[in-house]
Amino acid sequence: MDENHPTTPHSTYAVSKLAADRAAFTLHKENGIPVVIIRPFNLYGPRFTEPYIISEIMNQILKGVREIKLGNVNASRDFTFVSDTANAIIKSIVEKKAVGEVINVGSGTEISKLNLAHKIAKVAKRSIKITYDESRERPYDVNRLLCNNQKARTVLDWKPTISIQKGLEITYDWAKKNKVIFTAPFKRIYYNDKKDKK
Q1: For position 181, what pLDDT does the model report?
Q2: In angstroms, rounded to a whole number, what is the distance separating the alpha carbons of residues 166 and 177?
Q3: pTM for the full model?
C-alpha cells in the first residue's frame, strides 16, 4: 500500500484519521503552513495502551490464560516499532523535501494475527491455544495492511531497524514489569445487546 492507495475509510476510527490528514493538507495548501503528513502503520512497543492486538494477546498470556480469544486471526498487519516510527517523524520535521508530502511509515513486512499470537507465546515461553471469539470481530475490518515505505526511505533517508522479533521481546519485557489495566471489554459495543435480543 503506497501513498496513492485509495482512501475509502469504512470505520469511524479510519474516517477520523483521514479527516485530520485532509485538514493538515489544506492548511498547507491554503496558508503555506509547513505540514508533513505521516501515515504510520500499526505502531507498537513499550508503554502501550489497550485495546490493541499485541497488548491484548500479551495481557491474556500474562494473566495465565492458555486459551487466547481472538477475532479474525487471518487478517495481517504491518507492525512498526515505536522508536522506528518516532525516528521517521523526527526526520520529517527537519527534512525540507518532506514539506507538503504524504509519507507512509511502516516496516514493509506483514504478519497474520494468528502467527503474531504464536510468536508472542514463543517470546513468553508459553503454550497457547487460539479460540475464535465472534464478539472480537471488527465490522468492516481491513483484511490486509502492508506498507510500501519506499517514499520514506527516499525522502527521509529512513528505514526500520527493529525486527518484529526484537520488538516483541522488548515489548513483552516491559509488559511483564508494568501492569496495564483496561476495564472495558475487548468487544463490539453493540454485540451483547444484539445477543440479548435473540
Answers
A1: 67
A2: 17
A3: 0.86
